[in-house]
Structures are given as C-alpha cells and as structure tokens.
Amino acid sequence: MGEPGEYGKCGRHGQHDQHGRHSLYGDNRTATEVERVVAELVRDTGAHIGALYLLVPEEQVLRMAVVTGVSRHVAGPWTRVALAAPVPVAEVAREGRPVWVASHAELAQRFPRTALALPYHVAMSVVPLTSGTTCWGAVLQLWPGTHAPELSRREARAIDAARRRIGRLLRRAADDGHPMRPTELRTVSPPPTRHEQPGAELTERFPEGTCALDLEGRITFLNGKAAELLGRGHHDLLGARPWEALPWLNDPVYENSYLAALFSRLPTPFVALRPPDHWLAFTLYPDSTGISVRITPTEAPGHDREPFLTPPVAAQARPGALFHLLHLSTALTEAVGVKDVAEAVTHQIMPVISVQGLAVLTADEGRLQVVASRGVPQGAAGPVDGLPLTAEGASLRAIATGAPAFYANNEELRRTYPCIDLYRRMAAFAYLPLFASGRTIGCCVLGYDQPHPFSPQERAGLTSLGGVMAQALERARLFDTENQVARGLQAALLPHDLPRIPGLEVAARYLPATRGMDIGGDFYDLIRLDDTSAAAVIGDVQGHNVNAAALMGQVRTAVHTHASAGAPPDEVLARTNRLLIDLSSSLFTSCLYAHLDLRHHRARIAAAGHLPPVLRHPDGRTEILDVPNGLLLGIEPEAEYRTAEVPLPAGAVLALYTDGLVETPGTDLDTAIAELAARLAEADPEPLDALAKTLVRCAGRIRQSARGGDDIALLLMKVAQLAR
C-alpha cells in the first residue's frame, strides 16, 4: 500500500470510524471553501460542468466529492472511479499529469471506455490536485464540443490557480487533523443567471408548446399548448420528470436526449410518438440552470429517421445504469487471459460496485477452483479451493441451479450452513452464476461488511455483469489454452540450446509480441561447421499464424542442411528459395546467412530481403554493414544472391536481428537501425548475455509505448582470439 502521503504520487490521508466507514466530511469550513473554488473555476473558464474527485487509497477508488452544473441524480453513475481504470480521472491521479481532450472523437480514440460511458459532444479537462509531492485527487471540467482545440491562456491560468488553491486547502485540513473526505456528494448551485424566466402571458401567445426542466430533469414550467400537445394537465406534469409522467416517453433514448443536452450544452432534437398517432418534435435548449424545451407537432418520420424514433417500450433501465454496466463490461471485454480477467474484476470492477469481498470460482473436473479473490476474510477462500462440486454451500448451489441468489443479511446462510465460517464473518452476500457456452462454468461471490438490501435494479445489473464476466472468463480460458499450445509449438521450432564453438561467444533472445494462436515466424540458428567455422542464420516468415511457424521450421531445416553440406552463403539462400517455390507457399521469408571463419577472422554474408547486420568494432565504434540484398525467399525461382566478405577482428560483436527490434510506427527504418547501432556502441559488451538483454528490453519499452510491434529475434556473436 505504501507510506502515508504516497501512492506513486498520490496521497493517502484520511479518517475512519470504528467500522472502517468514512467519518464526517472533515472540516466543514474547508469543504465550503473548496466548493467555492470549484464554482468560481467553472465560472471563470466558461465550463458548464465541474467535478472534484478525492482519492480514497484504502479502497483504490476516486470518489466525486463536489459537482456543479448537474444534479446528484445525474452525476450518480460517475461518482466512483476505480484507480486502476483506463479513464482520464484515474490516469491523472495515477500519473500526476493533466489531460485535455478536445472532442468526443479524441475521447473515443484515447479513452474508449469513457467515450462509451459518456457518449456526448463535449471537451474535457482533468488536472491533478497536488500539494508538494502529494496528489489528493483531480478536478474535471466539461465544455461543449464546440470549444477551441486547445485551452486558452486565460483558461489554463484559471485552472492552474484553482488546482493549486484546492491543493493547499486540502493540505491545511489534513495537517490540522480534519482531512476532507468524500462521504456524501455535495452539489454547488450554478451562478445566478442574468435573465428572467418568461412569464405565462408571453408563452401562452406562442403557437407551440414550451416547458422548462431543472437540472434534475423535473418540469418547472409549461404553457397551455405544451400541456395540450403532451395530453396531460398542468397538475400532472409540474414537478415530474417527463419520462416518468408520460408512459410513451419512458424509454432510455428520450432521457438520454435530456442527458446529451445537459452534458454537451448544445441544442438537442428528437421525435417521439404520442399514442395513437400524434408525432411530436422536441428541441432542448440547455444552460447552467436547466433546459428549455420547444414542442411542435410533426409528421411521421420516414425510413431515413434514426431507429430510436420508433415507439418506445416501457419500464426499461435508465441511461445512467446502462452506461454504468457498459463501463464495467468494457473492463472485462479488454481482458485477454484469465489473469487479466481476475485483475479487471478485483481492481477495476470491485471498487466501483462498492463490495468489500469478492471471489471468482470456476467448476473444473468436478471441483471448485478459486480464480480470483480479494477482500475475503483471511483463510475463508482456502478451504473452497479444490472443494468437490458435491459438497454443500451457497456457491455450489448457484452453480448447480444456475440461479443467482441475494442475501441482504447472513442469518439464512448461518442457519443453513452453520459449519461455513465465511457466513459468520461477512454480513450480506450475492451469488452470481457464471453461465457461458450453454453451461454454468462457475460462480462470482460478492460479500458485504454491512447488511445490504438489493434493489430489483441492482439485482438485474449484477446478474448482467455476471453474464459478461462469464463470457470474458470463457474467452480468457480459451485464450490461455491456445496460447500455451502456440507457444509450445513455437518453442519446439526454435533451438533449445546453441552449440558451443571455440573462439565464439553467443547470446540470443526471442520476444513474442502476438497473442493466442497468432504466433510469429521469426527464427535464428547457429550451426557448427567444423572446429574453426560456424554459420549463423536469422529470418522472418511473413504472417503470424501456425502456417508461418510451420514454414519457419522448414526454412530453418533447409538452411541447416545446405550449410552442413558446405554450400557457400549465396548458394544456401538460392537452394532454400527453390525449396519454398516447390512448396507453393503463399508466404515470403526474409533471411540473412553468415559464414564465420574464426581462424582468419572474417565473415561471408548473404541476405534475402533482410535488415543489415550491425558490427561493433573492438574500439566500441559501430558499423551498419553494407550487404548486397536479394529478393525475399519464395518469390522468384531463379533469384540470385551475392556474398559480401567483412573482417571480424577479435573482440568484435556481430548483431543479427529481425525488424521487431527496430521498427516502430512513424519512425524511418534507416533512422531506427542507426539508433540500434548507437545503443550497441554505448552499451557495455561484457557480458554478452547482458548486452542482449539490454537491447531487447529497450526495444520492448519502445514497442509498449507505441502499443504494438512485431516479434523480436536477436543473435549476438563476439569473436575471441583462437589459440594457435
């Protein structure tokens, strides 16, 4: 967990009561000052929504403590953010750097999960709240998507001043022993507007309906024409939300139009059918105090209308709940292996659903296996691992029946299973069967440290989440199985050990970059020819699949055979090329072959569409060798290859490599090879194995930052002085 005041750069100050719950909001004076700063910041920058998130390190979450521009009801789905989540607020808190996103398109590219949960035309700024080396959380602001591509100097200065001021306030409160804690979300009223709401007399003269909604979505005003068009009286509509008072508007799409206007602060139109055949056009005009709505009759939409304009169905989930579920589901969708699923569940999903204990169990070969566990009382998960499916317990019953079970308290479980210690150590439970591929593959157990009544909506959401979790787990298990088979195949085709050759020190590295059955065709080999000579080969078969790996094995075998028969480098490549033509393979192969004469300290090299080798001279300077390059293997039956001879003095290091070591998107290949030569010159050549590790690790970091890359193969050979 780290020392107080540290989570990387993040703070860890806080107070709790005897039950581990948050104490009161802290110093109320500090809270009031912080709220005022947030409100002033939103006013000074022209943003329409502002939110202050505070870090809760012991829960690994950020909680929204202050919000302005929207109501508590609207902000609800976004009030808890897992610290590990790949979203702007969490990234800023983790790394201590601000994030600016100018449009929803950019948001979708950089933070796809946030774009899914916040599908509105907005610009976003998130900055860390710091004082010294401590990060307390983050401040988020939203503008309409029509904002300029960059923050203005005035906006940037206001944001920086406000974050520093809030950081000082939070530091002062913590030093005084009353740290500000995000117990209950506090809303800050928007600044007073300079216009008056139009009077009833004025709007009654309009030939169209008009009404007003507050930030909670409740109707605060409507004229007579609006009531007539909506088909209800004033007393039925005032104070109600339209989608709750009017059954034909009770669809997530229509509430989402309200949310779109609220978050984007842009006019938002939609069309709806008032049964039986009255089509109405709505246009929403938002500002900082609410939304004005214009309502007019319209014609039935044609086939070119968006699908959501058809008549809605009642009693569907609200948009906030839908986005919340999508947000959590995306975390599981991004998981690849079982380990990734376990990490997503325990570090990203568990904090957001406010559960204190969680275990994911799978049913394999008649027994339970614990895939992931966090927050479960010590020793409680151990006895479950390996338990026969014929044993008793609520999790086993959920697996057997396939039905979810919710226990608001532990009384029934303690009576039914008096011997199971877990049911006495936690207060409430939910058991979610994991159903995939037509069968129940396991169970997710949620535990709460206080009695927890489960509302129908929460039960539905958790059950849906269990379904997504099951599918992710099934995919992950399949991936792990395929990955194990693929890696085994590739390992079998690469040399297990390189031969020991007098006068030659060798180091090799292979780093895969692909997933599942998408295995690469990179290969290398070292062949002992006699006591004073050897052959080194490196290559890359086109593609990332089992066919590429199989062809790689054939190419490696062919090169080994022709080299052992004494063929010169150019002939080795020519014969291997004819073999690939005879195999009628659609895949091409790059290859570089080097004959090493260790007695006379020279190398004869031929290449077929491969990258040039790099030679590190004994004095430390490096040289990119100019080797004649022929066609890739497998293209032209009569292709010819030429041999170049280069000196190999004692102490020199010859580096052969594949493109994964140097290629990165947006970088010129010649520049990348020159950078490799520079790294080889700067690195310590002793020991050679450490040099290989350094070069591959550096390339791996570059590849990770570029979020992609190819397999890496590297073969280093250092020439020693032969004894005479």
Shape field: elongated
Class per helix and strand makeup: alpha+beta
Instruction: Kindly estimate the percentage of residues that lie in beta strands according to DSSP.
Output: 25-35%
Helix content: 25-40%
How many helical stretches? 21
Arithmetic mean pLDDT: 82
Q: Sketch the major β-sheet.
A: 7 strands, mixed
Distance between the termini: 61 Å
What is the number of E strands? 28
Low-confidence residue ranges: 1-25, 192-198, 303-319
What topology does this entry show?
Layout: H1 28-45, E1 49-56, E2 61-68, H2 72-75, E3 80-82, H3 88-95, E4 99-101, H4 104-110, H5 112-117, E5 122-131, E6 134-144, H6 153-175, E7 186-188, H7 200-204, E8 209-214, E9 219-222, H8 224-230, H9 234-237, H10 242-245, H11 252-264, E10 268-274, E11 278-286, E12 290-297, H12 319-333, H13 338-352, E13 357-364, E14 367-374, H14 394-401, E15 405-407, H15 411-416, H16 422-425, E16 428-436, E17 439-448, H17 456-493, E18 504-511, E19 521-530, E20 533-541, H18 546-564, H19 569-582, E21 589-597, E22 602-608, E23 614-616, E24 622-624, E25 629-630, E26 644-647, E27 653-657, H20 669-682, H21 688-705, E28 712-719
Parallel strand pairs: 2-7, 22-25
Antiparallel strand pairs: 1-2, 1-6, 2-3, 4-5, 5-6, 8-9, 8-12, 10-11, 11-12, 13-14, 13-17, 15-16, 16-17, 18-28, 19-20, 20-21, 21-22, 22-26, 23-24, 23-27, 27-28
Helix pairs in contact: 1-6, 12-17, 13-17, 17-18, 18-19
Features of this protein?
alpha+beta; seven-stranded mixed beta sheet; elongated; 724 residues; 28 strands
